[in-house]
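Aim 2 progress update. The chain analyzed this quarter is reproduced below.
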Amino acid sequence: MSKFIQYRAFVAIVDNGSVSGAGKQLHASPSAISKQLSKLEADVGTQLIDRSTHALSVTRLGQEFYHRCKDILQHVDEAELILRNERETPSGKLSISFAPLLINTPFLALLEEFNTLYPDIKFDLSMTGQNVDLVEDNIDFAFRVGELNDSRLTAILMQKLKLCFCASPAYIKKHGKPSMANLIAKQQLIIPTFTKASIINHLLQMGDDARPKDLRHFHTTDGEYALDEMACAGLGVSLTLDISVKEYFKQGRLIQLFPRQKLPTQDLNLIYHRREYMPENMRLFKDFIKERFPIALKAM
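Predicted structure tokens:
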């Protein structure tokens, strides 16, 4: 135990730039801190801090030893935190960002199930789009569609989502059931701008009209909920993700078109900030959602 006391004294001196500052941090007198530093230097057989000047100066070997000591102390602190968490009832608040397309899925029902298991864990939910910085905005988890391009984050695949075309019964009654070719030619599509550009470009080449087209010729929206409601209102045929409209299909508000059309899939991921130690409430939620959410989605 005396070694850890010496390590903490040494690290605190370097962090604060003074013996008195280290004493305030560790609630000890400056003389007690100096004594621990002297014992440590005697044990390792080398000078770690040069006290020959008014300002403390860490020696070259002291700098190397400081980083190793600090790493050891962080590991010990994390190990103690894990033990405390295991003894205590899981609690705290989890910040979760999710896309509107999850509203018509078992997502909220699973949150209720998790809350029944762990009533002291509360949620801070944010129904937002894709462009959320988990690290900067202090968000614990996010459900995101598409590829992960941030090395600071970890992604767990929940499900491969299928794109599909759909339209309202009123639209089909008024315009007739379209073919893929005349759908593009007549510019009757509602296109989500959050879909990958490569997918949109592929779609715009599928019609029999040789004229080049771009998004100016179609209805567009950056919101999943607006996309589905625009289709229900009869504004056109929407290109959307299957999980967001399955309930609309069951209710008869929308009808799927071209069910045999092969379209690219998009990944639905649970993402979180990569860290060496994950708090217990986050670990419990991650394991619960990882197991239950894919099963619930497939059962829709």
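The chain has three domains: 2-87, 92-160+266-298, 161-264. The CA atoms of residues 117 and 256 lie 38 Å apart. These observations will guide the mutagenesis experiments scheduled for the next reporting period.
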